[in-house]
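Case study 2.
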Amino acid sequence: MSSVSSSLRTVMFRKKMGAGMWLCSLLVILTMLLVACGGNSTSSGNSSKKSVLNIGAHVGGDFTKALSPYNPNANEGVKGMVYETLYYINKIDNTNKPWLATDYKWSSDSKQLTFTIRDGVKWNDGKDFSADDVAFTFNMLKQYKAADAQGLWTGGYLQSVTAPDSKTVVINFTKPYPPLFWYIAGQTFIVPKHIFEGAGDPTTFANENPVGTGPYTLKKFSAQLLVYAKSSSYWQADKVKVDELHYPSVKDNTTLQLELAKGQIDWGSFFAPDLDSTFVAKDPAHNHYWMTPTDIFALYLNLGQAPFNDVAVRQAISAALDRQQLSKQAESGYVEPASTTGLILPNNKDYLDPTYSDVQKTAQADKATKLLQDAGYTKGSDGFFKDKSGKKMSFNLTVVSGWTDWEQMCQVIKQNLKDIGIDVNINAIQDTAYFDARNNGKYQMLIGGLFGGPNPFYLYNTHLNSANLSPNGFNWEKWNDKQSDSLLNDYASTTDQAKQKSDIQALEKIFATQLPVVPLVNAAAWYEYSSKNFTGWPDKDNAYAVGAAYTTPDNLQIVLNLTPVS
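Prediction:
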């Protein structure tokens, strides 16, 4: 199953300074709006003043009305603050928390999933929330395929979704597939039947007065500012300590960085190479950041072309890389070198086979050279290796022009491979040309992403499953391996955790030894915050949610944990 929509993934990977990244090319704040945003979020001597949380989670110009949670460019705050999910699943440690549902149960054959729906929840227009709304939401995705971003129906997984009574939802599957729980319970935002049943396509529905079960209602919409106000009817209103959420539109990441440093923004999500000096040093007691590893940046080698179809070449390239340098030079040391297993560490440490506990951080040029020589490759008089046809090993490395961290990675890789006798030409192109090359296999070497989930299955399934071969999925390297498919299918057909762990560790071995993709460094969810006005933020010692302001429904978990400083 393809785990995420391509547009979403583009955003998620490009919240970078001067970069404009994929599923996430955003985040900054507009200088003119600082006064309108509320300047100082809370007041310290006047308890009657509203507590206002200023959130830098939108970059790139004015807001347009996109207030449906199924709009592909839904406005910030719509998901999480207004619309909620059945469960909250923490992507960092794979724990889950009942939310709009209080319980779930799988049938013995894992082909039926039954949810018990929470009692006493109301929509913010006063109408009762029930199982009928949940069943309607899932059947709406069946009717409007563009809204089915997780491929629940279009992927052929769901057979039916019904509500036999007001507190029960029964989901029947075409085949056993327990990993769908994350998408069904944790990533599907439930909408009110009485509003959406006459709205048509939810991806285009204006939804100007959004009605949700969440703790906030839309108070103000303008091209420059979104304001959400606390709802007194929220089903856990006692947990809501923040009166208003302000999302200003933002010009660029540089502006956001400046305003965050000035204390005019409480919560931001962006990449900058110098946060210790430009942000933390301005107020060390309150200014913090935590770059949560959630995905992996990787080197794709086109497996359909020689010599990349030779595992010895892939192993040599991986051995030649200085991942510590990649981390420091391209990502300012915010993230660690990636494990060649494809596991996102330390998040996935419980799945790690001890055989692969050592992450290769520095270049191993001698090992790389020996791998090539033992495989029958020889160097020419120019010092570069020749492929089996006698042609100099010289390859284009494709990257998006302007994605500065990835461009820095290319420079490091170019030098690392030159050191062992492989020539690299950096091919920097515009993003549309890059996506075309990546999706259709029009590249030799390419910088890209490996997308993670609550456990390693999601990354492996997304990028190794032959059912996800590009251009229809994210298997961009064209890995087509029966053993990988068998292990993935075996994992997906059971809820036996011991069996699942065994399958994951077998996939680790394939990834680490066969290197269908070469992991480089972990990829982070960028997250900066100030504790001057609010306390309760997640950090590495209290990782109750992914910290990025753009991550949903983690954003809701964070706001419900915040307490204004009095």
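The longest helix spans residues 497-514.
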